[in-house]
């Protein structure tokens, strides 16, 4: 397998870099649209859902190729989501209530998003059920 | 420290990039370096790479914030490099996976450890910046 050919590795790095550019840009765009705490919460929930779906989909069905998945998740999704801004927001939270809200929001909704994406991946594996279509684009 | 990003000095150069390009460039750097960390330190038992990038990135972001970095430096280093270097999606998926494979204590330790160590790193960043003239 020529997966470790220097040119292949270079291509992977370039794609990850492009994904990082796009992901951080989208996060920056969200920071400009809504309040910073809401923006970080939003990208972390969406990114956790998308990554969870791709990981569990790969485990259950494997329709998305492994290399394209790696590039998309490592480059784009992991750059879209962020831990450092969340940690800074927690550290600089003006009052304890805000700290609790920021941590509970990101952790609680982030984990929930992963569980929801797992449920969706399982439904896809078990065949397209006739009821309630629409969410599987 | 490197307070002077040459492009951030007004009048020094005519090159005046869009904030989105600054953030994106930092994001590309952060993502590639994070990829390198994952290649070096991946482990089946515990998601060390995610913990490492989150704590390191939070520290660096803290240094930039407490050192009073300019807006464009914060965009490059904070939102771009540190924002992309650290990750929440891998963290949340890995924590759920640890939990569902039966390592509930390790999952909890991972969730608490990321936050506690990142906050501690930000505290250390504050200490370093406020003690020494940078």
UniProtKB/TrEMBL annotation, chain A:
The chain crosses the membrane at residues 12-31, 37-58, 70-91, 97-116. InterPro entries: FluC (IPR003691). One of its GO terms (biological process) is cellular detoxification of fluoride. Pfam families: CRCB. It catalyses: fluoride(in) = fluoride(out). The keyword Membrane applies. Keywords: Cell membrane, Ion channel, Ion transport, Membrane, Transmembrane, Transmembrane helix, Transport. It is a multi-pass membrane protein. Its main location: membrane. One of its GO terms (cellular component) is plasma membrane. It is found in: Cell membrane. GO terms for molecular function: fluoride channel activity. Fluoride-specific ion channel. Important for reducing fluoride concentration in the cell, thus reducing its toxicity. Belongs to the fluoride channel Fluc/FEX (TC 1.A.43) family. This is Fluoride-specific ion channel FluC. It comes from Natronorubrum halalkaliphilum. The gene is fluC.
From TrEMBL, chain B:
One of its GO terms (cellular component) is plasma membrane. This is Fluoride-specific ion channel FluC. It comes from the Archaea. Na(+) is not transported, but it plays an essential structural role and its presence is essential for fluoride channel function. Keywords: Cell membrane, Ion channel, Ion transport, Membrane, Metal-binding, Sodium, Transmembrane, Transmembrane helix, Transport. The lineage of its organism: Archaea, Methanobacteriati, Methanobacteriota, Stenosarchaea group, Halobacteria. It is a multi-pass membrane protein. Belongs to the fluoride channel Fluc/FEX (TC 1.A.43) family. GO terms for molecular function: fluoride channel activity; metal ion binding. It catalyses: fluoride(in) = fluoride(out). One of its GO terms (biological process) is cellular detoxification of fluoride. The chain crosses the membrane at residues 20-39, 51-69, 75-93, 105-129. Na(+) binds at residues 83, 86. It is found in: Cell membrane. HAMAP family: FluC. Fluoride-specific ion channel. Important for reducing fluoride concentration in the cell, thus reducing its toxicity. Coiled coil: none annotated.
């Amino acid at each position: 397998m020529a997966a470790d050919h220097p040119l292949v590795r270079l291509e992977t790095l370039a794609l990850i870099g492009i994904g990082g550019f796009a992901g951080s840009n989208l996060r920056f765009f969200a920071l400009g649209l809504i309040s910073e705490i809401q923006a970080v919460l939003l990208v972390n929930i969406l990114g956790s859902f998308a990554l969870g779906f791709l990981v569990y989909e790969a485990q259950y069905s494997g329709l998305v190729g492994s290399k394209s998945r790696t590039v998309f998740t490592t480059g784009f999704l992991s750059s879209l989501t962020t831990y450092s801004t969340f940690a800074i927001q927690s550290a600089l939270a003006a009052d304890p209530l805000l700290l609790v809200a920021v941590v509970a929001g990101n952790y609680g909704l982030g984990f929930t998003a992963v569980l929801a994406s797992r449920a969706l991946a399982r439904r896809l594996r078990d065949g397209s059920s006739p009821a309630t279509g629409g969410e599987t684009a | 420290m490197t307070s002077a990003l040459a492009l951030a000095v007004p009048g020094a150069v005519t090159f005046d990039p869009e904030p989105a390009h600054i953030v994106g460039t930092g994001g590309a750097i952060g993502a590639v370096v994070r990829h390198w960390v994952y290649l070096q330190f991946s482990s089946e038992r515990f998601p060390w790479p995610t913990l490492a990038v989150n704590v390191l990135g939070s520290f660096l972001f803290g240094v930039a914030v407490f050192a009073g970095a300019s807006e464009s430096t914060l965009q490059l280093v904070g939102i771009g490099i540190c924002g992309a270097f650290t990750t929440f999606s891998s963290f949340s998926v890995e924590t759920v996976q640890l939990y569902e494979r039966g390592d509930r204590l390790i999952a909890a330790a991972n969730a608490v450890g990321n936050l506690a160590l990142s906050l501690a790193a930000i505290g250390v960043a504050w200490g370093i910046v406020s003690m020494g003239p940078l």
